[in-house]
Amino acid sequence: MDDEERLKIKIAELRSQPSLEETERLLNDTVGQITDAATGIVGTLRWEQVQVRNQGLCGHDYRDTGGLDVFLPHIRADRPVPEENWSQVLEAAREIARQAGITEMQIFSDVPGNREVRMYGENGNAITIGYRGATVISGRTGCRLPAADLAQPPS
């Protein structure tokens, strides 16, 4: 299979996915539900946005497809999740993420005072939650085509 055929296959894959805007909305809603759940478990958490949204061209297999991915703003609480509540917060986050097709989990750090877990799905979407001094939740969409591109007939 040559590069042109591979590119056509990748574009067809992207055309079968929800739009970038729809995916970003879903991920934003999911992160919001996770922060709400965490606050329900640890009532002292107060959240703020600490980074801006970032959008860029997809790389690797999706280079040259016109696909984009979005890094959501990081949401930070002013304090860490207490150790005695971490497993509850993580389980709530996993359950909420599962509803958005984010079903897998990768643990980067799992020691008291330094937790970091990435949840991801076959849909390419990912959410990271963790703490080391403060609690941070971030998200990234999988590679998607904007709605305007999806509205155009395939070339």
From TrEMBL:
The keyword Membrane applies. Keywords: Cell membrane, Lipoprotein, Membrane, Palmitate, Signal. It is found in: Cell membrane. It is a lipid-anchor. The keyword Membrane applies. Its main location: membrane. This is LppA family lipoprotein. The lineage of its organism: Bacteria, Bacillati, Actinomycetota, Actinomycetes, Mycobacteriales.
